[in-house]
Each structure stands twice: as C-alpha cells, then as structure tokens.
Amino acid sequence: MKQLDKGIHAVANIQSQALHAGFKSDAAHNDLALIYFPTGATVSGVFTQNLVKAWPVIHGQASLKHHSNFKAILINSGNANACNGPDGEKTMHQTIQELADLCAIKPSEILMSSTGVIGAPLDFFPFKKALPTLVNSLQSESSQAVSESIMTTDTVAKETAYSLEIDGQTIHIGAMAKGSGMIHPNLGTMLAYIVTDIACDQVTLNQLLKNAVDVSFNSMTVDGDTSTNDTVLLCATGENSIDLTDHNLATIQSLITKVSQDLAQMIARDGEGASKFITITVGGAQSTEDAKAVAKSLATSNLLKAALFGQDPNWGRALSAIGNSGVETLDPWLIDIIFKSDIGSIQPCRNGAYHPFDPQFAQKILTATDIEMIVELNQGTSQSTVWTCDLTHDYIEINADYHT
Amino acid sequence: MKQLDKGIHAVANIQSQALHAGFKSDAAHNDLALIYFPTGATVSGVFTQNLVKAWPVIHGQASLKHHSNFKAILINSGNANACNGPDGEKTMHQTIQELADLCAIKPSEILMSSTGVIGAPLDFFPFKKALPTLVNSLQSESSQAVSESIMTTDTVAKETAYSLEIDGQTIHIGAMAKGSGMIHPNLGTMLAYIVTDIACDQVTLNQLLKNAVDVSFNSMTVDGDTSTNDTVLLCATGENSIDLTDHNLATIQSLITKVSQDLAQMIARDGEGASKFITITVGGAQSTEDAKAVAKSLATSNLLKAALFGQDPNWGRALSAIGNSGVETLDPWLIDIIFKSDIGSIQPCRNGAYHPFDPQFAQKILTATDIEMIVELNQGTSQSTVWTCDLTHDYIEINADYHT
Fold this sequence. Notes:
- The structure is a homodimer of 404-residue chains.
- Chain A folds into two domains: 2-269, L-amino peptidase D-ALA esterase/amidase (4-Layer Sandwich), CATH 3.60.70; 277-400, Ubiquitin-like (UB roll).
- In chain A, the strands form two sheets. In chain A, strands 1, 2, 3, 4, 5, 6, 7, 8 and 9 form a nine-stranded mixed beta sheet that branches. A six-stranded mixed beta sheet of chain A has the order 13-12-11-14-10-15.
- The longest helix of chain A is centred in the middle third of the chain and has 24 residues, at 246-269.
- Helices cover 32% and strands 28% of the residues of chain A.
- The first copy, chain A, is globular.
- Chain A has eleven helices and 15 strands.
- Chains A and B meet through helix 8, helix 9, strand 13 and helix 11 of A and helix 8, helix 9, strand 13 and helix 11 of B.
- Chains A, B: Pfam families: ArgJ (PF01960).
C-alpha cells in the first residue's frame, strides 16, 4: 500500500472546485464545493441516525434508494439546511435543478451535503449566482480548495489517499472529511467523501462502506452527539477493471477501512478544544458488541475525559464508566486497566482494584498528546477500539461563546 | 404541609453525631457520622445500578433483602470503600462489629455508607479509635454536624423537613443528602437519608421510596455518571400510629416525593461548577417513558449545557438532542421549544423550525440563575421533568485538577 498526497484527486477522472458563495460571512473562506464525476460513479451512503435530519440527508437517503449512479456532489458550508421548514427543501431542489441544467445532467444524478448553522433560512440566490463560475472552473489538480471549503470549526483540513497493486493492476482511493464535534454557533457535522476507481455495484459498495464505518466513524466520538447532517459517501468511478473476487474484495475492504479510520482519527484529533488524542482499546470481551459498549462508555465519560486533560490516570472513573456501560455480564473483579504513551506505561488497576504505580511517572506519561488506554476485561476474546479526545476548557469556550 | 428546619431531627427519637476520624486530611472537616434509632426503624433502600459497587452498597443490598429493622446508619466520607479488594470488605465488617458491640445491638441492625476516593485502602484503625466518642456523644438537637460531615465537593449542606396533619395526627419527615456530580479526586456519590415517624412495613416503604425516587433522584443529572456508591435510604421509626389507609398513603407518598425532589433539586443546583439550575419539562409525549427519555437526552447534552452556560438559547442543539433520544416515534415537525426565567420567556422553535425571537431579550432571560426549558412534543398527553445544571469552566477545573 502506497500513501498518496492528492486526496480525492489520487483517483483519476474526478473534477472539483470550491469558491465563496456567501454562506460564511468571511469572504476569505470558501463555502461552496463541487465534486464532479464526468463519466459517473456508483455511490453508497450512510447518514445520521438522528431523527431530526437536514434536508440534504432526507434527499440523499431517498436518492440512494432509487439510484446508484451519480455525477455530482454539491457541498455548502455555513448553513446546515436543517430545521428551517419547507423553504429549505425548496431551495435544495432549486439548487439541484440549476446545477443539473448547467452541467446538462439529470437532477437525480446530484447529491447534496450541507453543514453549518441550523434553523437558518437558506436562500437560492447565492447558489444561483455562484454555480456557473463553480462549474466552469472545475479542475483535477488539487483537492485543497474543496477540503478546506467544507471546514467549519475544524482547525485542519482532513485528507488521505493510497494506491495498491492487486493482480498487477493499481487501484486508487482518496478521501476527505470534516468534523470537530458539534460546531459553533449551532450544530456541526461529520461529512466524509471517499472515492475509488474500482468498478463495483451499489449493493457491494453498501457492504464495503458499512463494514468500514462500523470500525471507523462509528468508533469515534468527540462529545457523544450525533448531528442532523452526518453523511459518509463512497463513490466508485469504475475506471479500473479489477476483478472483484472474494480475495480482492477483502483487500479492497481493508483499504476502504484504512482510509475511513484515517479520517475518523483525524476528526477525533481535531475534536473541539482537544489537547489530547485518546485511543481506547477494550479486549477480553465476550463479544465485539460488549467490547464496543465498554469502549464507548469510556469515550463518552466527561469525568474521565476531564481527568485525562488534567493528566490524571483516573482508573476509578474508568472503572465506574465501565460499570455504567450496560454490559450486564461484566465481572468487575477481573478488569485490568493500563495507560500508555510514547513515554511509557502504567497499570493502576488489576483485578478491579488498585495496583501500585508511581503517580509522578503516571503524570509524565499523560503529558503526551497521544494517549492509549488499554482495558482488559479478561472474560472473552473479542475486542474493540474507539478514538476520542479530552474534555478541556476550550470545549466549553467554543460551545458557550455564541455571542462573542 | 409545614416546612421545618431541623433536617432529620424534625422526627422524634432519632439521635445523631459526627466527628473527624481521619479519612479527610483536613481535621476541620468531620468525616464520620452516625444516625441512631434507639427503638429501631423499618428501612427501605435503593442503590446504584452501576455494576461496579462499593462494599457498603453490596452489604446494604444484601442486608435489606434479609432484614427490615435497623438501629444504626454509619457514614464515612473521604474514602468510598470501593475497588480496594477484599481488605475493604474486611474493614467494613470489623467496623460494623465494633459499632454493634459499643451500642449493644446486632451487626445485622447496622447499615453503612461511604463516599470519597475510590480504590484507596480503608483502615479499621480510625473507625476503632473514633467510634466510642461518636457513640457517647449522640444527640437529638441538631442535624448540622451530620449533614456537613457527609459533604465532599458539595458547596452547601442539603437538608429539608416538613410536618403534615393527617386524621388529626401530625406526621414528620426529615431528610438530608450529599452529591455534586462525581467528586474530586476520584469518584463521588449521591447519598440521601429520609426519616419519618410513620409505622410502615418494609414492602410498603419500598413502594413509597421507588415511586419517589423515579420522579426525584432518577430525574436529576449533573454529568450523566452513576457512581459506585449511590444510596437512598427511607427509614420509618413508627412513633406515629397513623392508619395507613389508601388515602393516607397517597398523602404520605406526596410528602416523601416532595422531600426527595427538594434534595434532588439541591444536588442539581450544587452540581460541580454549576452556574445555572435548569429545569427541563417535556410535555405532549406518547408515554411518560418517552417524555423522560427526551428530557434526559437534553439534560445530558454537553453541547446544550455549554450553550446555556453561554446564555445562548440554542434550540438547534436542543432539537438535535431530542432527535438523539432514542424515541423512534417522534415527529420532529411538531416540536415547540420555550426558554423561560423570571425575566420572561421566548419560543425560538415552533413546529420543529426557527420561530422569530429577539436574541437580545433571549440572552437577558438566560442571565438568570434558574432557567426553565419547556419542550412540547405535541404528540400525546404524558410529561416528565428533569433537573440539571450547566456545563462550565469550573466543571473542567474541578475534574481535571487532581494534582493541585
């Protein structure tokens, strides 16, 4: 596997562009992006499970049920097009029609994503004004404009790409994402776009995406909230004619899982106000579901995440969060807990009770930016890994200071 | 109903005392308390549902299964007697035996509670040394020493008491609690003790307590964590001979519910780092369970709680939290949201979408310490109320700064 640096443009025959249409107040920040597949792509999608859904999510779910081939993904930031009544739906349809006309494609070949303020009216006018320029300036050289334009409270753009030889052919995969917890001033969103040049039917793509999402985007939490707009799309252009044997599919699955995990880790690392990136691995569980439930209970504990911000190896809070995981068959008296970083590791808890450790060395270990927490349940052979960040003053600052 | 000011000593024939035994480092803070019923009391209890349980919780649950009449409740603060291995259990039993000998009662007539650091060894010696003085100085005048001694990160002692005339007789109820979220430096706890002079069998007491806890302690959250030590005890001394007719029981139920709600509200108000007390009422639900699920999803949303700290009527985050409540039958397009305080009220959301309001006035409303959030689902007739507090810089400070 070879790492590439062109994001979605690691894959051939994809065009993109971004510009400032006016949804963000600062004209220096682009807020409208287009990803274009001149010869089409088979697309699979997973969307937020929040019952409150933005218009583009409602639209995308319906579109992907009835269609498998798409030519354009239009993404605006600065306005989530959520909770704004029937006018938001109307603007979305007008925009899709306008783009279809400009590109001479069908409206049903277009998917849309939005991220930003929820509940705010979304006008068609800025789209109408910006779309001709956007379409006319499509290019295939750089993904930077697009990956930056979708940022909201993100502090860094998030891209990854690889190529891999299979059966003497080279397949390519490129991806980008945005997300940083829920976003100032209202709601934020996790958006991710993965493109590859394999030729693949939608049913198979759905399975590849679902498997990847389970161990990546669904194994990552910043603040436990699911937004109204979360969307992950996997697009296969079919440039490559590699045979999808079971063996090749397994290889492709690991590649798609790898880019998904790359992006999920970038999002957790860029969590709102985060000072630490925390990898929680729970092993020795009776099932993967149990392991994941325990890992998620740890990853969403404010108490534990505030402790790690304070460089405190607070195994007591960890044990309590494990006890609150809802896994009824756990035996607390078998649990071991280890904290680890580049600096070293300590085991403050063995068999569910205090295990002697050097508090000074523990604090030193936790000064690192990347922390690993290893929980061994000693009750089975299943495991799960979840990524999160610490809970800091800056999280409060970002999420409280609406008026400043 | 008449409000009284003597806490548990509003009820006759109860003795109490507290002193410093050495579990807290500061000798100015008492850390060992005894509540004594010279002629016994019928006791009912509810305990943490955390799978990881402190020794006194494991002991209390077993005791209340086999016994209904108790004479003493011993409470230490500064050490939770949790996750410290078999030695913690041994110390507990030694302590209970020592207290039984000193009082000439049976060990099975004693319940114990602990709150404070978890995972720390707990020695018998400080108990042995302090218990004779504690027993010899029991008094019935003031509950202050006891209600203060059980505090950990609490900033105020929490007591309430009432009397009520029923059928020409006066019944009394007094109560105290501690709790302020999870507590520095490790785990904290919610402890509550309610005493009354009615004569009542344990089965009836269990029902009265369960009903009260459902709409009080189980309707309150500071940070979504359940500790290893949470305990609520309801003790009936039987001094009063009032007939427990259905009608009288209903009256007594409302009294027990009232003191439970008083204490739950005091705990939410004293939440770690809290600057605001927030009452969330969800109405128009298809069932009480649905209403409570929605209210709890709101009350545990970091995003919403950080917004309220920032005086931001962030109905978008509220709507998203409602969508994440797990109530699958919700129609988001029917939901109304109102924010209210002494200063006035605004309705920023109607039918699941933005509803015009004055942002300046909204911010002014949210400068109040007591905030009400009213969510009308418009899909049924059931409702539920939950109390919580905002998420502030001080919460991070309290829970991160272990080493200072």
